Each structure stands twice: as C-alpha cells, then as structure tokens.
Amino acid sequence: MTSLRITDVRPWGGPATDLHVVDGVFVATAPSPDAEVVPGGGRIALPGLVDAHAHLDKTSWGTPYRPHSAGPSLASLIDNERAHRGDLGPVRERVGALLDRHIDRGVLHVRSHVDVDPQIGLDSVTGVLAAAAERAGRVTVEVVAFPQSGLLTRAGTAELMAAAIDAGAQLIGGLDPAGFDGDPIRHLDTIFGIAADKHVGLDIHLHDRGTLGAWQIERIAERTEALGLRGKVTIAHCYALSTVDDVRQSALIELLAAADIALTTTVPGTTPQLPLARLAAAGVRVGLGHDGVRDLWSPYGTGDLLDKALALAVASGYRQDDDIERTARIATEGGARVLGLPGYGLEPGCRANLLLIPAESLVEAVTQRPVDRTVIAGGTVVR
Q1: What DSSP letter does each residue of 262-279 carry, written as one string?
Q2: b/e map of 231-245 (b: 16 or more CB within 10 Å)?
Q3: How large is the average pLDDT for residues 171-180?
Q4: Mean pLDDT throughout 327-339?
Q5: Which one-letter DSSP state was computed for residue 187?
Q6: Beta partners for 264?
Q7: Residue 315 burial (CB count, 10 A)
Q8: How far is CA 280 from the centre of its chain?
Q9: Secondary element (H or E) of residue 196
Q10: Helix axis angle, 91-105 to 123-133, nearest 10°
C-alpha cells in the first residue's frame, strides 16, 4: 500500500485542508503515519486539467520552428498539411514530447482527434496510442478517428475509421458534413452508422456557421436520439450556435440539452464565443481544448490549458470573478464531463490526479498562470 498526505492546500481556492491518498485514490481519513508528505504551502488544488479537443498527431513540438506556409482557407490548410506532414518526423516522438509538456503543466487528460486517410492509413493512430501507452498512469488519452481530408471525398476513409476503432481508438469523428464534404446526410449516416456498429461515441467538427450549421445540429440531434447515443456525442467548435439569432440559439440549446450533446471550444478568434452562461443554465456540457499546438495549421499553443482558459475569459469579455472562475471549471470539470471521466475530482473515491498552484484565488490562477506547479498523477508526484 502506498499513501500520501498533501498538507495545507485549498481545493478550488476554498479553505485550507489536508488531502489524503491511498493507492492512488483520495480517502477521507488520514493514512498511516509513514505516508509521504507533500507540503501544500497554502496553494490552490485543482483536479488535473482536461484538454477536451486536441490534435496531438499534428504537433511539431520539440522540433525546430517552421514558418507558416498554408493559405487562409480550410482546403488550403488541409492540402498544405497533406503535403508537408511527412517532414515533421515520427508521430510517436512528437506526440510524446507534447504529452510530456502537458503533464508538466498539469494537463492529465486529453481527447485527441487523430487523422485517418488512405495516404497515412492508421499510422498516426498507432503513433499516438504508443506515445500515450508509454505515459500510462501519468496522462490519459482518448483517440478520435478523424477524417481530416474528407470522409466521402477520400475513398476508403470510412473503412479506415472503423479499423481505427479496432486498433484502439475510442470515438468516431466527423468534419463539416455540408461545408467540406458536401453531402451532409450521407456523411452523418456514415459516421453514426460506424459508431452504432462499433458501440462508440462521436465527436464531430462543425465549423459551418448560421442556418447551415444550425440545420446540421438538428440532424445530429435526430440521429443521436434515434440511435440511443444520448451522452455519447460531442460537437466541436459549433460556430453555428454563436451565429444565429437569439430565438434560434435558444431552440438549439434546448435541443442540445434534451439529447445530452456536449460541446467543445478552442476559443476561435474570428467567430463569437459560445454562450457559456446560457449553456450552463441549460445543463449542456462544455469542455475546453487547445486544438493544434505548434503545427502546420498554426504557430500558436503552449501545452498549458490555463493559457486557453485565460484566452476564453478575454475573448468572452469577462471581468467578474464568477465569470473568470467559470473558465477554470470548464478547463477541469467541464472537460471531465465531456469525456465522461470516471473518478474525477478531489473528493474521497476519486483518482488522485491534481495540480497545486501558488495563487490566492481561481481568478489569479487563470489570469497569472503561475509556472511553479506541483503535479500529482495517480498519487505520485510527477513534477
């Protein structure tokens, strides 16, 4: 039996207390006198950060800087990546370097979309899974089989996505059924069919705005209900929700809540932010993600999800403490609810995944993002 006593910490910025861990799980009573002691020093304790929308396989983390070479359109970004992704080096090594950065910053749970197409087959999926397996116990990684180059426009992609689940991926992805693939009904029927056949969930990129995107949200909700997939579907980005009028937005939020469809945001710079307060009031699960980190799509990204929480607060125009604190909750509990993580939190019975941050409040943790952190994964100090 291994035991740990974390002294003088403030869970979620509240009153100071000690946290007790036995065999990697929080317990209510103090462990044996010979337990390892981690001095908290009055720091805030948060459960492990959750990156609910990543693209680990695309990263160039740990490699020399590359000038951005793609054009502005989605098609240009995709074509540029297909032309140059082979220059980045082995997926396993790059993903491992980025996961090490995540662990160092306290990001202990990641859902990553991973490209599947006829050119690369399942190589990226196996590379991400291998890097994650090497860090088992320190970080958990969910893999979404993702048709980045198109599902219907690349013959054989649907079959590869099904094979990716057999190889260890946990979810099926989708990409702009109307705006990119051009056949929303067939696209949605295909990905929902694979998910139902494989008994897995879905996480669907939806960049389409306005009424076109709203119409697709409605079609996704229909299929979610019809196939008994409530609680197992996520829409990433969901720009349509922020680009329709208030009446349509309210109706869509009710639809999402009724079908228990989750959303993730990566803090877009050219689209209004998700209506976070309205979504929270309706009980819609929302998570936060990095998207790509230093890849062929963008030079941005630090591997620290608190940087994204700050970006979300700024982009949303937040100044009040309650609003800024909401972004910290989305980066932790929100993402955990999207991923359906078991045993997540700081209560007895939860897995002891946490970080200690020297800050006076959750607001300061988000706005200042102190770099001096202690990270504990499964009851073991890893930083």
Answers
A1: EEEE---SSSPPP-HHHH
A2: ebbbbbbbbbbbbbe
A3: 97
A4: 98
A5: H
A6: 236, 287
A7: 16
A8: 18
A9: helix 184-198
A10: 40
Joined tokens for residue 108: 């202990």
Q: What is the mean pLDDT of residues 210-238?
A: 98
The set of residues, in sequence order, having a beta carbon less than 8 Å from that of 76 and lying 6+ positions away, is 70
Residue 40 tokens, joined? 């908290």
Query: How far is Cα 183 from Cα 187, in angstroms, rounded to an integer?
Result: 6
Beta bridge partners of residue 22, listed in sequence order: 3, 25
Of 246, 183, 245, whose CA–CA distance to 216 is shortest? 183
Q: What is the pLDDT of residues 116-169, one digit of tens each?
A: 999 999 999 999 999 999 999 999 999 999 999 999 989 999 999 999 999 999
pLDDT at 326 (0 to 100): 96
Residue 346, token pair as written in the block: 């700081």
What backbone torsions phi and psi does residue 162 show, to the nearest 5 degrees? -65, -40
**What strand order describes the sheet that includes 201-206?**
49-54, 107-115, 140-146, 171-175, 201-206, 233-237, 262-265, 286-288
What's the pTM? Answer: 0.96
Q: For the chain, how far is it from start to end, CA to CA, in angstroms?
A: 22
Could you tell me which residues come within 8 angstroms of residue 329 by beta carbon, excluding any fewer than 6 positions away? none
Task: Report the candidate in 110, 122, 179 with the shortest Cα–Cα distance to residue 146.
Answer: 122
Tens of pLDDT, residues 34-52: 899 999 999 999 999 999 9
